[in-house]
Design a protein that fits this description.
single chain, about 325 residues, alpha/beta, 2 domains, eight-stranded mixed sheet, globular, Glycosyltransf_2, glycosyltransferase activity, Glyco_trans_2-like
Length: about 325
């Protein structure tokens, strides 16, 4: 059979709640020349059954059901198995507009200097209702993308991205060390070899809900993103990237040794701490200790008493007392 124009890559782990709608939105695209790679990454729910039912109805679906290996392994596996020159990412909890693929393919065809194109998103909640989200739009040009890197603004929505397979393979695909921010690290590595941007149209409905990865792993995600940015700056300066061969990132206190200079660990805490102040999961996990260490190191105290009150509302009175005591000691 001739190779398709697009390989769609979706990894699923216990995604039964929203999976059918996500698959249906891909199969309903007005650009139909694609194969749909779906890996069930060891789900314990009905995901495999749902995938099998769709695969029996549509021959474009190439399903793999196996044990859990994690998202990074699944994404790299699909890149290796893809038959098309373009890969469209998709998550099991989002919904594509029917013209998403056709508009992204047109953009990449007309802009051969761009290796990745995303889209703007429409934010929805677990029930498909509008979700009020305050944030910057994803950059429309490569120059704006580079500015977003320096200002820690949003870069690309991962499940809305379409990229050239060869150029992603050239930079080594997704890196296992940057679990939960593997897309951010990939965009930064690609920024040195190609151009990236997003189409300013809302071609993906992006779902927000309490149990999604970005909510459950916010602390690890933000720490990884900060280290990825440091690695990007090393590459930009013509120095070796000390994270390139890592399978796992070291503890924050080990970063000075990894990068070969003092102050890196403290910089990471200062960059990450302000991003965790509204995250329920972060204030309940290692993010809380990072925050208190940041304050002991002279970090900005603005708004911290409101975090104390937030901890009380989150049902964490002991941590509220600890943070209040830290604020009093560091006055």
């Amino acid at each position: 059979m001739p190779a398709p124009a697009i390989s769609v890559a979706m990894s699923v782990y216990n995604g039964e709640r929203f999976l059918a709608a996500a698959i249906e939105s891909v199969l309903a695209q007005d650009f139909a020349d694609f194969e749909f790679l779906i890996i069930d990454d060891g789900s314990a729910d009905a995901s495999a059954k749902i995938i099998g039912e769709f695969a029996r109805k549509d021959p474009r679906i190439r399903a793999t059901l196996r044990e859990n290996r994690g998202l990074v392994a699944s994404l790299n596996e699909m890149i290796d198995h893809a038959r098309a020159p373009f890969i469209a990412r998709m998550d099991a909890d989002d919904i594509c507009r029917p013209d998403r693929f056709s508009k992204q393919m047109r953009f990449l065809s007309e802009h051969p200097d761009y290796g990745v194109v995303g889209t703007w998103t429409e934010d929805i909640d677990a029930y498909g209702r509008p979700y009020h989200f305050i944030g910057r739009e994803h950059p429309e040009t490569h120059d704006a993308f580079l500015a977003a890197i320096e200002n820690a603004w949003p870069l690309l929505c991962h499940p809305a991205a379409m990229f050239r397979r060869d150029i992603v393979r050239k930079v080594g695909g997704y890196h296992a060390a940057f679990r939960h921010c593997e897309d951010y690290d990939l965009w930064l590595r690609l920024a040195s070899v190609t151009r990236l941007c997003s189409i300013p149209e809302r071609l993906l409905l992006y779902r927000h809900y309490d149990n999604q990865v970005s909510s459950r792993h916010a602390t690890e995600q933000q720490i990884g993103a900060a280290i990825s940015y440091l690695a990007y700056r090393e590459r930009q300066a013509g120095r070796p990237d000390p994270t390139e061969a890592l399978d796992r990132l070291p503890a924050i206190d080990e970063l000075d040794a990894l990068f070969g200079r003092e102050g890196v660990s403290r910089w990471v805490r200062a960059r990450v701490a302000p991003t965790l102040l509204y995250s329920r999961s972060s204030l309940r996990d290692a993010g809380f200790d990072l925050l208190t260490r940041y304050l002991h190191e002279g970090g900005d105290r603005k708004g911290m008493w409101r975090v104390v009150a937030r901890l009380v509302r989150f049902g964490e009175p002991a941590r509220a007392l600890r943070l209040g005591a830290t604020l009093l000691r560091t006055t």
